[in-house]
Amino acid sequence: MASTKQQENSKKRCLNCAKPLLPEFRPFCSPRCSQLDLSKWLNEDYRLPVVEVDDLDEEEFGDEEY
Ligand SMILES: [Zn+2]
Asked: Which position among 21, 24, 45, 60 has the lowest Cβ density within 10 Å, counted as fewest Cβ atoms?
């Protein structure tokens, strides 16, 4: 009884360039757009590990012996 509506795909747009997407490259319209988005994610991932923690360490301890 349940009928799948495949035509709903035509309503969605490419996440990258807003063109009508192809089912093969969902949610993008082409392999190019999917790769562009992937590289975006990778770039943001690279920024995450960079955290400044060294500043807080050893600052309160100092080298003086109490
Ligand atoms: Zn696109």
From this structure: 60
